[in-house]
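Researcher: We are triaging several targets before committing to wet-lab work. For this one, the compound of interest is adenosine-5'-diphosphate. I'm pasting the protein sequence and the ligand SMILES. What I need is the predicted three-dimensional arrangement of the protein with the ligand bound, expressed as structure tokens, so it can go straight into our comparison scripts without reformatting.
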Amino acid sequence: MSSKTIGVACRNVIKEFGDGEAKIRVLHGINIEVPTSELSLLVGPSGCGKTTLISIIAGLLNPTSGDVVLFNTPQSQLPGRKLVQFRAKNVGFVFQQYNLLPALTATENVAIPLLIQGVPRPQALEQARHVLNYVELGSRANQLPSQLSGGQQQRVAIARALVHQPRLLVCDEPTAALDAKSGQTVMELIREVAVQAGRVVIVVTHDHRVFDYGDRIIEMSDGRVVNVTSKN
Ligand SMILES: Nc1ncnc2c1ncn2[C@@H]1O[C@H](COP(=O)(O)OP(=O)(O)O)[C@@H](O)[C@H]1O
Ligand SMILES: [Mg+2]
């Protein structure tokens, strides 16, 4: 077996919601290792815990116990402020419903993560235009989200998630709101990003049309990983 660089690992990740009587365990001790430079899909029926797990991996949620290791850095060992900085630098997130700000142009939307990090506006907009060219929306740079199709809005959202060049990109059902053709374009783009050196891309999906794009399929059921298959 060829040796692979592990970019992301979950170590016995448990997640519970609620307190006392109302407490429910949603993740029952997840252990996975995700290599760099390939596309990993996280699949399973609705309610099995995909969004919860990917949110914990991305740092939008904390685990109840267990740890997430991102690029050899155990997240549990980073103090609060460092943790926020680490994630802002290293993680990009794409949602099913794009989550673009309606009053901002495509370029301005893409520039947001840089502006938050304190990059001067002209430089942030310049970098945003560069990434919009990469997702083949250079000609739409000054348009508002409402002037773009669903597939184009999702590509703007991907550009926004990539503008600070994060090593980890996570996408939660990125094609769920798209027609077949736009879904294909979006997955081809995500695949191109995923195979870049050192990068980890994890896509949550229950869309069977997407399965073919994955190098690795991590299957969940009822809060557990039940199967991992790899093409390589
Ligand atoms: N904030 C929350 N509070 C309570 N239960 C939650 C919360 N978020 C998710 N859940 C529950 O956790 C389970 C897994 O949800 P989720 O991770 O969204 O699944 P999936 O993305 O696979 O559809 C579901 O039963 C859901 O109702
Ligand atoms: Mg979900």
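Researcher: Any quick observations?
Model: The chain is about 30% helix and 30% strand.
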